[in-house]
Amino acid sequence: MDIFPVGCINIHPSLLPKYRGPSPIQTAILNGDSISGITVQKMTLEMDSGNILAQSQFEIKSFNTSVDIFEYVSLNSFDLVIEALNKLLKGDIGIVQDKNNATYCSFLGKEHRTIDFKLSAFDIKNKINAYNPWPLARARLDNNEIIFHRADFISTNDYDDQVIGKIIAFDPSKGLLVKTGDGILVVLELQRIGKKVLDCVSFYHGNRDLIGKVFS
User: Fold this and answer.
1) I want to staple 20 with a disulfide (CB 3.0 to 4.6 A). Which of 48, 60, 127, 155 is the partner?
2) Which ranges carry the Formyl transferase N-terminal domain (predicted)?
């Protein structure tokens, strides 16, 4: 980096010093964050610890996937990069990160992609949305593996008498409703292995015997 007169910059998709590391978008969704951001930092030898040159925040909606946020960041970083470059050219060193507030994230692994329906609907939908495009959360239905691509949730005590993992209803205005350990998982996009990704309406129309079956 010393060969560059004013240094190097890096676009990091979090509100640094939060979520330093390789998976800030996925980690924000996994943790259920409603706000994240984009940071342009001056690069240093220590990972994601450089001075902040430009930063903005955005909302993460409940049904947003990592793919959605990657796309948003790619489309909304240009102005921040220009702001950061102008600061560097003027000799502005930016804002020093507070290392005491630093948090870290790590690589995601496919060993955690299996859905445990005993968890809350909130936690499950976070996992589904965070793990799209990889490693993609999944469960089994009729001995077939089903991949989940997008989900939301309903916080409710209704259906407490139903078996966990059971598909309790299909609502065209909401999605495929699945009982969890706490609340209802609303499945919006899913896929059979080797088949196309389908929205919940198309998937249901091709599998009208779903209601009452149980994911495992």
Assistant:
1) 48
2) 2-71
Question: Mind listing the pLDDT tens digit for each residue in 133-190?
Answer: 999 999 999 999 999 999 999 999 889 999 999 999 999 999 999 999 999 999 999 9
- Judge whether 2 lies within some domain: no
Contact 36, 69 (CB under 8 A): yes
Cα(96)–Cα(50) distance, integer angstroms: 7
Decide if 77 is inside a domain.
yes
Boundaries of domain holding 22 = 9-101
Chosen domain end from 41, 75, 101: 101
Which DSSP helix (H) or strand (E) runs through 63?
none
Backbone angles phi, psi at 103, to 5 degrees: -125, 165
Residue after which a domain boundary falls, among 73, 101, 129 = 101
Strand partners, 41: 10, 52
Residues of the chain with pLDDT under 70: 1-2
d(CA 75, CA 185): 30
CATH number at residue 191: 3.10.25.10
Number of domains in the chain: 2
